[in-house]
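User: I've been trying to design a sequence by hand for this structure and keep getting stuck. Would you show me what you'd pick, starting by listing the structure so we're on the same page?

Assistant: Good idea, let's start from the same input. This is the structure you sent:
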């Protein structure tokens, strides 16, 4: 690492200890640096000398050991130091491009855990800077599944560079001039290119030609952002070309069975840094569109991952949930890509569910109580299908369903349609509420709640209504609710949410509307 003078605009705390006199700078006369008039708190020259002298006495010079402590708490990855013990320095993104930093390249080559974030929000740069500050290893700027072009992606690259995060651009598929198209993004400052729908070694070579300069590839050379237009630090243009060829990233996406079948040839391309296996497109190729956790998809992904790892190349995979991340990391995938849109939607959805749940607590309690009453009256024939479903999901046969068991059931591909959607909803509810398990009665009540499963027959709703009210009354009163739920506060909440006409009681029609309504605090979209 080249020694640098920290600019005066960066405040530093200077600590000095006189080795000979065992004193601090406040006890020794002013420290004089060779070739300088003295030192200041804001700018110090001649870093590389390391040891300085003091002038406490004329017959013996003391030696000061200088250490430097930044006043700002900057992240550890922003600092480097050399073997000579020179002070740590922070990469100045105004002077140096990500290509000067080998961190991403080394992590890929060593197959270390590497986390990127995919974004198609090409008109917003704030979220890119936030991802950099959160510690993501790279930005995956998506020009395939978005309307982003070189102009908008260049702004994302600048935002990522500002926070020390390199950018890889996934270009669109089918361009006749791959080199010319990729060049637009490389000129804007991308550290590498990701080619989608790769199915041959020839496809990979096209990206190598686009990303690397001669003699490795065929990329055109000029003064551009990546080489700082040959200004500032970085050496000659030849030095910068060599550095770019060493540190630039070549990646491809395998999205079909043809691509997996061609892996043996693809893996022979020397300059390939990582291969991303795309489960969504693979599911389409296998005829199970969108079912990324279908057994046939998982089998193909695991097969591809094993072959990639055996070749010593980094393997990439999609991580939409923390469970996805741990599942594929356990199977050797090391380049994990999250998706900005999913994180935004998941966070927004979780927030809305929590809001609805809080605001409709009374209605939810009333509905759950009514459904449990109905569930207790169902015959074995009526519960047979759901009972078999519950038993098949309850792998350890402890009578309750855990988040892990629901995850396995969802990923198995055994269930589809309405029931699959319900299982996902139940799993998400457990994660949001922090509850560990789901009991049989709650599972039955929640699955009955879906009108598409056809359990809410009119006579059963009437039976539940009669169960909650006093026999000599036509409506459910607040005293009835207080007796059932054992809390005057809860009774008032229930009445407030269900009593739509405000007469102080819950009629059969109001009760029925609560049961058939989607506004239960769980299924909010």
């Amino acid at each position: 690492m080249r020694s640098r003078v920290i600019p005066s605009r960066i405040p530093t705390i200077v600590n000095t200890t006189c080795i000979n006199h065992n004193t601090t700078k406040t006890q020794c006369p002013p420290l004089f640096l060779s070739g300088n008039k003295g030192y200041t708190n804001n700018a110090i020259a001649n870093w590389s000398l390391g040891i300085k002298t003091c002038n406490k006495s004329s017959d013996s010079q003391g030696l000061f050991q200088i250490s430097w402590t930044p006043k700002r708490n900057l992240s550890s990855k922003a600092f480097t130091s050399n073997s000579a013990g020179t002070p740590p320095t922070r990469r100045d993104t105004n002077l140096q491009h990500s290509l000067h930093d080998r961190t991403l390249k080394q992590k890929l080559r060593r197959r270390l855990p590497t986390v990127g974030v995919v974004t198609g929000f090409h008109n917003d740069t704030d979220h890119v800077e936030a991802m950099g500050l959160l510690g993501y290893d790279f930005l995956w700027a998506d020009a395939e599944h978005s309307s982003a072009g070189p102009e908008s992606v260049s702004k994302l690259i600048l935002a990522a560079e500002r926070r020390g995060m390199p950018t890889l651009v996934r270009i669109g598929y089918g361009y006749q001039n791959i080199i010319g198209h990729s060049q637009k993004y490389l000129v804007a400052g991308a550290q590498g290119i990701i080619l989608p729908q790769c199915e041959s070694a020839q496809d990979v070579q096209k990206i190598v030609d686009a990303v690397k300069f001669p003699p490795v590839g065929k990329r055109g050379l000029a003064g551009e952002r990546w080489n700082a237009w040959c200004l500032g630090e970085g050496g000659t243009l030849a030095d910068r070309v060599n550095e770019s060829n060493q540190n630039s990233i070549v990646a491809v996406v395998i999205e079909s069975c043809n691509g997996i079948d061609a892996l043996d040839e693809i893996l022979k391309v020397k300059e390939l840094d990582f291969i991303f296996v795309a489960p969504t497109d693979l599911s389409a190729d296998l005829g199970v569109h969108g079912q990324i956790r279908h057994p046939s998809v998982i089998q193909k992904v695991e097969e591809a991952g094993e072959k990639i790892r055996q070749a010593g190349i980094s393997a990439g995979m999609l991580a939409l949930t923390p469970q996805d991340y741990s599942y594929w990391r356990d199977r050797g995938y090391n380049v994990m890509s999250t998706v900005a849109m999913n994180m935004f939607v998941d966070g927004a959805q979780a927030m809305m569910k929590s809001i609805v749940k809080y605001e409709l607590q009374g209605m939810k309690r009333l509905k759950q109580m009514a459904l449990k009453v109905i569930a207790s009256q169902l015959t074995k024939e009526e519960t047979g299908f759901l009972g078999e479903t519950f038993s098949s999901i309850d792998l350890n046969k402890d009578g309750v369903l855990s988040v892990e068991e629901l995850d396995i059931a969802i990923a198995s591909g055994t269930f589809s349609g309405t029931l699959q959607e319900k299982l996902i909803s139940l799993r998400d509810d457990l994660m949001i509420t922090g509850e560990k398990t789901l009991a049989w009665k709650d599972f039955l009540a929640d699955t009955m709640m879906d009108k598409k499963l056809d359990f809410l027959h009119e006579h059963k709703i009437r039976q539940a209504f009669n169960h909650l009210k006093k026999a000599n009354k036509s409506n459910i009163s607040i005293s009835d609710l207080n007796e059932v739920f054992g809390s005057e506060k809860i009774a008032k909440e229930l009445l407030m949410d269900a009593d739509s006409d405000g007469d102080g009681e819950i009629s059969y029609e109001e009760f029925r509307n609560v049961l058939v309504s989607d506004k239960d605090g769980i299924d909010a979209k």
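That's my pick for every position. To get oriented when you compare it with your attempt: The CA atoms of residues 166 and 486 lie 59 Å apart. The chain has a mean pLDDT of 78.
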